[in-house]
Design brief:
Structural class of chain B: alpha+beta
Shape of chain A: globular
Radius of gyration of chain A: 22 Å
Oligomer: heterodimer
Largest interface: A-B, 11 and 11 residues
CATH class of the largest domain in chain B: Alpha Beta
Helix content of chain A: over 70%
Number of helices of chain A: 17
CATH topology of the largest domain in chain B: Alpha-Beta Plaits
Order of helices and strands of chain B: EHEHHHEHE
Helix content of chain B: 40-55%
Strand content of chain A: under 5%
Number of strands of chain B: 4
Distance between the termini of chain A: 24 Å
Number of helices of chain B: 5
Strand content of chain B: 5-15%
Distance between the termini of chain B: 9 Å
Radius of gyration of chain B: 25 Å
Largest sheet of chain A: none
CATH architecture of the largest domain in chain B: 2-Layer Sandwich
Shape of chain B: elongated
Largest sheet of chain B: 4 strands, antiparallel
Number of domains of chain B: 2
């Protein structure tokens, strides 16, 4: 079999730079329009009631940085997760396309740096629990509930100081994810040279280790990075909910990149049957996401306990965010459910090129809804700033992934199950 | 069913031989009526040139029926016939209806699909199975060709079968 290598052409790079450039221009337009008034004005009134300091456009920028940090860090780790699942499940069908999700992992170090930097610059604007008054019994802002949760962020240091436990978790999660990604990548590339089945067994072992770690770390990162924004509120479903959102958007991105690469003439080993399987994955996990989302929603709705229902009061019963609340369900459940239902729609690349961006953008809105109401209260909005920042992140992410793909063979030619994958038929 | 059918039956022992034979025979211009086998043979649908099953459309329609039935029932009972305040919710609390709606959708979709499948495959309780050769319930595969639907002569088709690995070729009129 001829070795297939992806060439990261100048044209592709140029398009990505244009995407990032448009993003930067949109962000600037967004910041200027925020300073001209508009949203800022109504915000002042809302904030005056809350008794906090006045709303500033940087808060909206920081909240958006955090949305994209979490969303794209998730996509990166989901790529490695997909790769690991294939080995743990001893799946044969995916042997020809596994290099694509694996390349997502190259974003992990960048995601880690961005997250740490944004946390240290903007932590106070994003996370209510970072304010030290909350832990000071003599202060009028003292909050016994948050004080009770303080150990989870600050242990072993004193509450209100440096959140060592929180930062340590962030560093450890990213560190372990990245180290395991590097090991998996190195083993996969050495398989191209050495052949045999030994590398496959090594990768299966590494994958199992990764999956066990990911099971815990994905849930905890959901509490840390997103649920702790609404510090008083909690949901036992949240780890699953955020994982489901990450996972289905990651699957959609894998499918989208596979389809686009096939259009360019790469990936001759991938055919409609493999696309069908990816489509089934997206279809099934769109429903899974809805199931988890609804399980969280229905219990809170039905029990109607104020401390829990506040989360949906802020999102569903709020004129500001209600449109996004319904948009979220429409983009992430109704559209994928109806569009991907038939067999043909999953097998045709033209159809997949329509559905996968819907799912990816839909889940970006899901993260928008998780993070914005808690950080910006009534000052949130959706405009040039949001679109621009997403374009910058998306452009950079795709650049890193394609760059990673161009470094080694696109198809694992010595994968012991490649032959099985070629005969995959459903 | 009233008209009698003249079948030529190619009997096969191995499913790989069968699959190749069906492909070759069809490529030779024979219209195959049906292939009977004791277990599903992978790739047979493609070999017979079947387009995708339309059973999924039936499932969708039955599911739709389930959805509307469940919503009509709940809205009728809880909102119109005997409105009750439960947990301070509206008389028609839509989110609370979703689990029941989901269950009835799945129930009707699956029952409808299984029922339709049994009827169209002639597996319904009052149906008489069309056993052209009793051994298809055991370990033999049978390719049935209806002579009335084919322009090729009996001898040509018989030869095609035996040339492509059939262990015997029989004739049967139903």
């Amino acid at each position: 079999m001829v070795e297939e290598k992806f060439e990261f052409t100048g044209k592709a790079k140029k398009n990505l730079f244009i995407t990032i450039g448009v993003g930067i221009i949109l962000v600037i337009i967004g910041i200027i329009s925020l300073n001209m008034g508009g949203h800022g004005h109504e915000g002042h009134e809302a904030v005056a009631e809350g008794g906090h300091h006045a709303f500033h456009w940087t808060q909206r920028l920081f909240a958006n940085l955090w949305i994209n940090n979490v969303f794209f860090a998730g996509l990166a780790v989901i790529g490695v997760f997909f790769f690991a699942v294939q080995y743990a499940a001893q799946a044969g069908w995916s042997a020809g396309l596994k290099r694509i999700p694996l390349a997502f992992g190259a974003w992990l170090p960048i995601a880690a740096v961005l997250m740490l930097v944004v946390f240290f610059i903007a932590g106070h604007d994003i996370f209510h629990w970072t304010h030290h008054d909350l832990y000071d019994t003599s202060s009028e802002d003292y909050d016994s509930i948050i004080d009770g949760k303080g150990g989870y962020f600050y242990w072993p240091l004193h509450k209100g100081g440096f959140p060592l436990f929180f930062i340590a978790r962030m560093v450890i999660f990213f560190g372990v994810w990245y180290v395991l990604f590097l090991k998996l990548k190195a083993t996969a590339i050495s398989e191209d040279v050495d052949g045999g089945t030994e590398k496959w067994y090594q990768m299966r072992k590494l994958s199992a280790i990764f999956l066990v770690f990911f099971a815990v770390s994905s849930s905890m990162s959901a509490w840390d990075w997103v649920m702790s924004i609404d510090t008083h509120w909690f949901s036992t479903m949240f780890g699953w909910y955020m994982f489901a959102s990450w996972w289905v958007s990651g699957l959609a991105l894998i499918a989208l990149i596979v389809v686009l690469l096939k259009d360019k003439g790469y990936l001759s080993v991938v055919n409609a049957n493999h696309l069908h399987d990816l489509g089934k994955f997206i279809f099934a996990f769109s429903i899974f996401w809805t199931y988890v989302w609804f399980s969280q929603f229905l219990l809170i709705y039905y029990a109607n306990i104020p401390e829990e229902s506040i989360y949906f009061v802020e999102r569903w019963k709020n004129d500001h965010y209600a449109p996004y609340f319904f948009l979220n369900l429409f983009l992430n459940f109704f559209l994928p459910f109806l569009l991907l239902m038939t067999r043909d729609s999953k097998r045709h690349s033209r159809f997949m090129k329509v559905v996968t961006p819907i799912v990816i953008i839909g889940h970006w809105f899901d993260f928008y809804l998780m993070i914005t109401p808690g950080t910006l209260k009534g000052n949130g909005g959706f405009g040039a700033l949001e679109v621009g920042l997403m374009l910058i992140y998306a452009g950079a992410f795709i650049f890193v992934v394609l760059n990673q793909l161009s470094k080694s063979a696109l198809v694992a030619k010595n994968h012991p199950m490649l032959e099985e994958s070629l005969h995959h038929h459903i | 069913m009233s008209e009698s059918k003249n079948y030529i039956l190619g009997v096969y022992e191995d499913e790989d031989v069968l699959l190749d034979a069906v492909k070759t025979v069809r490529a030779g211009g024979v219209k195959v009526d049906e292939v009977y086998s004791p277990f599903p043979v992978h790739g047979m649908d493609d070999a017979l040139g079947y387009k995708g099953s339309r059973l999924t459309i039936v499932a969708f329609l039955f599911g739709l029926l389930g959805t509307s039935l469940a919503l009509t029932m709940q809205i009728g009972m809880m909102g119109v016939d005997w409105p009750m305040i439960i947990g301070g919710k509206d008389f028609i609390p839509f989110p609370s209806f979703i689990p029941v709606t989901f269950e009835l959708t799945v129930l009707l979709a699956s029952f409808g699909m299984v029922g339709t499948f049994l009827v169209i495959s002639n597996l319904k309780p009052w149906g008489k199975p069309n056993l052209l050769d009793i051994r298809i319930t055991d370990d033999k595969h049978v390719v049935a060709v209806d002579l009335n639907k084919n322009s090729l002569s009996e001898d040509v088709i018989t030869k095609m079968f035996s040339d492509n690995g059939a262990i015997e070729v029989n004739k049967k009129t139903v």
